[in-house]
């Protein structure tokens, strides 16, 4: 479903429809929202560079990370860094979001440490004024695509930071204006769901056509974090997690899908969901120096072994061999318990019991060595 | 076989503390002392001779049962190692200067001398009650809006002092590693009259210093204060922005004489986030008079 998201953002908005919008939400138990966010941003950038997307540029509202972080991140993934000016703009809400540095510089308390002015970055010094923020976004977008019919994407790296400085209704109005603008192709933002009330998260989800939720692979039963007994769970959750996507179609139908993801050195990798039982059992296996688990082949072989006196219950009456029949009768009589009606598969295991003599009583307590005269 | 790592103190034969300025230590002995490995340094990714990793946000969490103040002291000592030129800016809401000076002297670190050398800047915030300009701190008689403005003025002024200290501490060429330590965030929130929003704004601006100047930011907060809160926004927000989280907790089995608690270090990766993999480790500790022992569970005989 990560691929589905990529395609939806790449294809952009249909004429007369609002732009597709994605909410990426995570929590402290699985704080991989920034990883997914950067992954989606990198994919959208790649599509723009390749000319495969409706969007011709990206306007990034950076609140949680500095503009230089995103430039470095994109440079590490894309070779063509010289073209940044053509398709990438950053509204810098990170460096001085409340105008503190400007005020301190005016009274001489600090010196101006602003980085070199860049055409690709515009500093915002009042993130509380969302109307001005929206105007700045549109101006940066029009620098990329002009006044024509070109479209650009709007990316907000932290809706959480914006809600801290403005009301949810103001933010909802901003996002609604973004989605409904003729020149916006798509939009996505990141939200830390455990920092907000449920209604705040719900508002943003309602405004989104796609919601991607990041959850831990295994939840701790005790709820305690950092406990040594839960360290293995913490380690597992620090590298893997679950990725749930909910897509809302135009006809109102909702599609739910899930994937697993793994954080590797090269980035985030998405894989089809594995079984929950396997996940839980693997997490409970202690780390020892010998192998406590079975391979797939060993598991199959073990399943094939038919235990003695085991009731198979296939529907036919099963006679349990009690050892009182002779060997020849055992061979001729194919309905004995030890020769169960099974397939001719040579790999299937079975237990064959040959009674020593006809006089031997089943489950005899006599020691066969009693008659020895030593 | 037990493996016990010690943070070695500096003592003379009379078992008296001494000032670093008068210590007759050979360079090799100094180097050996500062390079003595311990599990905490290894968990933080501090290599031999390295005082701190630059441009990181480190969150230290503790609780009433298990104080993590020793981690703060260790990071101060590590940053002010005589083998490096790093500087420390310490924002103190919790204790006066004499308290830290006494503790660090026992660990072989003379804060008075280092303060005189401009390597250690101590910002005493014990009396901070969000002052405005010549305003008394009787905020209860003011409206919420006015009280908020005064609080914001206080944290704004504090941030200005910190950035100014960073600019002053920088060596020509900007090569000096600077660590900003805040002890502690809860008391800062108290000083800000419970305004976690102002505290978060302040922390955000301090975080921008890690980007602009390559500083490290180390903050201490108490997790159990927020444990009963339905949505502990402040500490959760700090955990989101921190690249390294050091949690000090009591043992799950209860009080023990020889083991004072356990430390869990969660290293989320480099500050540039290009290294995405998390690393975690957990070990026990025992706080002695002038040193701390770190060891893996079950490794002590």
TrEMBL record, chain A:
Map out region (Disordered) in residue numbers: 331-374
Q: Which CDD domains match?
A: Elp5 (cd19496)
User: What are the BP-aspect GO terms?
Assistant: tRNA wobble uridine modification
Subcellular location(s) of the protein: Cytoplasm; Nucleus
Q: Which InterPro entries match?
A: Elp5, P-loop_NTPase
Q: In which pathway does it act?
A: tRNA modification; 5-methoxycarbonylmethyl-2-thiouridine-tRNA biosynthesis
The protein's UniProt keywords, in alphabetical order, are: Cytoplasm, Nucleus, tRNA processing
A GO cellular component entry from the record = cytosol
Source organism of this protein record: Actinidia chinensis var. chinensis (Chinese soft-hair kiwi)
Q: Where is the composition biased (Acidic residues)?
A: 357-374
Q: Which family does it belong to?
A: Belongs to the ELP5 family.
Q: Which GO terms describe its molecular function?
A: tRNA binding
Listed Gene3D superfamilies: P-loop containing nucleotide triphosphate hydrolases
Which residues lie in Polar residues bias regions?
Answer: 331-345
One family from Pfam that matches here is Elong_Iki1
UniProt-recorded name of the protein = Elongator complex protein 5
UniProtKB/TrEMBL annotation, chain B:
The protein's name in its UniProt record = Elongator complex protein
**InterPro entries in the record, alphabetically?**
ELP6, P-loop_NTPase
Q: In which pathway does it act?
A: tRNA modification; 5-methoxycarbonylmethyl-2-thiouridine-tRNA biosynthesis
Give TM segment ranges.
none
- A Pfam entry, by short name: ELP6
Family label: Belongs to the ELP6 family.
Enumerate the Gene Ontology biological process terms.
Answer: tRNA wobble uridine modification
Q: Which Gene3D superfamilies match?
A: P-loop containing nucleotide triphosphate hydrolases
The entry's cellular-component GO terms read:
elongator holoenzyme complex
- Which species? Actinidia chinensis var. chinensis (Chinese soft-hair kiwi)
Taxonomy, superkingdom = Eukaryota
């Amino acid at each position: 479903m990560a691929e589905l998201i990529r395609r939806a953002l790449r294809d952009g908005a249909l004429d007369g429809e609002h732009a597709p919008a994605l909410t990426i939400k995570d929590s402290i138990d699985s704080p991989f929202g920034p990883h997914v966010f950067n992954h989606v941003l990198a994919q959208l950038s790649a599509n723009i560079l390749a000319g495969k997307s409706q969007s011709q540029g990206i306007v990034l509202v950076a609140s949680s990370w500095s503009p230089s972080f995103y430039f470095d991140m994109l440079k590490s993934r894309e070779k063509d860094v010289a073209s940044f000016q053509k398709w990438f703009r950053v509204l810098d809400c990170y460096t001085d979001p409340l105008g503190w540095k400007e005020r301190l510089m005016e009274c001489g308390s600090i010196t101006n440490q602003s980085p070199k002015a860049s055409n690709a970055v515009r500093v915002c010094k009042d993130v509380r004024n969302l109307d001005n923020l929206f105007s700045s976004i549109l101006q940066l977008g029009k620098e990329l695509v002009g006044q024509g019919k070109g479209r650009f994407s709007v990316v907000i790296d932290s809706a959480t930071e914006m809600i801290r400085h403005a009301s949810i209704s103001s933010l909802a109005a901003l996002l609604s204006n973004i989605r409904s603008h003729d020149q916006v192709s798509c939009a996505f933002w990141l939200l830390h769901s455990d920092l907000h009330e449920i209604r705040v998260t719900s508002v943003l989800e309602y405004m989104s056509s796609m919601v991607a939720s990041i959850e831990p692979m295994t939840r701790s039963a005790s709820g305690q974090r950092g406990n040594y007994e839960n360290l293995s769970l913490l380690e597992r959750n620090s590298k893997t997690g679950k990725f749930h996507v909910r897509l809302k179609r135009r006809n109102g139908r909702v599609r739910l899908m899930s994937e697993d993801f793994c954080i590797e050195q090269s980035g985030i990798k998405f894989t089809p969901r594995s079984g929950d039982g396997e996940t839980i059992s693997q997490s409970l296996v202690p780390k020892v120096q010998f192998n406590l688990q079975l391979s797939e082949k060993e598991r199959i072989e073990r399943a094939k072994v038919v235990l003695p006196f085991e009731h198979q219950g296939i529907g036919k009456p099963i006679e349990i061999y009690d050892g009182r029949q002779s060997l020849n009768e055992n061979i001729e009589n194919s309905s004995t318990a030890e020769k169960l009606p099974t397939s001719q598969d040579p790999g299937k295991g079975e237990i064959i019991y040959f009674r020593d003599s006809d006089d031997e009583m089943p489950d005899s307590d006599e020691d066969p060595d009693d008659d020895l005269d030593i | 076989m037990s493996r016990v790592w010690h943070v070695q103190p500096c003592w003379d034969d009379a078992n008296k503390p001494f000032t670093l300025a008068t210590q007759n230590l050979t360079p090799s002995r100094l180097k050996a002392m500062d390079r003595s490995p311990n599990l905490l340094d290894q968990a933080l990714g501090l290599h031999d001779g390295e005082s701190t990793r630059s441009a990181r946000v480190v969150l230290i969490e503790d609780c009433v049962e298990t104080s993590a103040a020793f981690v703060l002291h260790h990071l101060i000592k590590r940053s002010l190692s005589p083998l490096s030129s790093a500087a420390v800016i310490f924002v103190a809401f919790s204790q006066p200067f004499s308290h830290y000076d006494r503790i660090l002297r026992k660990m072989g670190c003379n804060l008075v001398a280092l303060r005189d050398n401009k390597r250690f800047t101590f910002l005493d915030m014990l009396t901070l009650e969000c002052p405005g300009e010549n305003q008394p701190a009787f905020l209860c008689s003011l409206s919420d809006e006015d009280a908020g403005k005064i609080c914001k003025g206080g944290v704004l002024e504090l941030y200005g002092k910190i950035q100014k200290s960073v600019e002053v501490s920088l060596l020509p060429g900007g090569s000096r590693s600077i660590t900003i330590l805040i002890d502690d965030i809860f008391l800062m929130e108290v000083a800000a009259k419970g305004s976690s929003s102002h505290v978060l704004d302040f922390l955000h601006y301090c975080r921008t210093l890690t980007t602009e100047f390559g500083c490290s930011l180390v903050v201490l907060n108490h997790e159990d204060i927020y444990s009963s809160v339905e949505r502990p926004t402040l500490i959760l927000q700090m955990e989101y922005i921190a690249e390294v989280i050091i949690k000090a907790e009591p043992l799950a089995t209860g009080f023990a004489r020889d083991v004072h608690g356990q430390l869990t270090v969660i290293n989320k990766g480099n500050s540039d986030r290009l290294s995405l993999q998390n690393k975690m480790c957990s070990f026990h500790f025992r706080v002695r008079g002038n040193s701390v022992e770190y060891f893996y569970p079950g490794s002590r005989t």
